[in-house]
Amino acid sequence: MNSIAINSIRFIVLIALQVLIFNNINLLGYLNPYPYLLFVLLFPINGNRNVLLISSFFLGLTLDMFCNSGGIHAAAATVLAFIRPSLLRFSFGLSYEYQTIKIVDKISSERISFLITSILVHHFVMFSLEYFRFSLILNILLKTLLTTFFTFIVCLILIFLIKPNKR
After folding, report:
1. How distant, in Å, are the alpha carbons of 115, 125, 131, 146 from that of 79?
2. Which of 43, 96, 153, 167 could cysteine-pair with 88, CB 3.0–4.6 Å?
3. CB 17 within 8 A of CB 38
4. Is the distance from CB of 104 to CB of 162 less than 8 angstroms?
5. How far apart are CA 37 and CA 148, in angstroms?
6. pLDDT, tens digit only, all 167 positions of the chain
């Protein structure tokens, strides 16, 4: 399948999984995983950046409509899509410059650092907009760290489930 079809299917499946399954998970009444951001993270490295920004905005906006969350997912997904090249350059260095990386390949320290920093940035922006008070910075940081860990585990599981088996 071509890249447009794969990304369209990924968009629809991740929104459906987020709305139907992951929004109903509320661990300890505090933690929700947000694996829908895998769409932004697994977007092709050499893909059109404008398409990534627009589709990330619509990904977040669609989730905001289902969650009635006032635009925080759209803002966080768009910020993540905007700084994704910097995060890739930070995590992969020269490999990113030559566009020779794939996130779904074997898990390495570079891929783990990319996933964790991306999820951390996304969640910090999202929870900062959700609470929107400087006096609640400790709540923002705590929820960001705990939800980042939970989302990272869920994202790793999903990556291993969708990864093509090369035998």
Report:
1. 15, 8, 17, 20
2. 96
3. no
4. yes
5. 12
6. 677 888 888 889 989 999 999 888 888 777 889 999 999 988 888 888 999 999 999 999 999 999 888 899 999 999 999 999 888 888 877 665 555 566 656 677 888 888 999 999 999 999 999 988 888 899 899 999 999 999 999 998 888 887 765 54
Residue 61 token pair? 């906006």
Three-state DSSP class for residue 31: strand
Residue 165 gets which letter from DSSP? Answer: P
Model pTM?
Answer: 0.87
| CA gap 154, 47 in Å, rounded | 25
The residue type at 139:
N
- 68 touches 20 (CB < 8 A): no
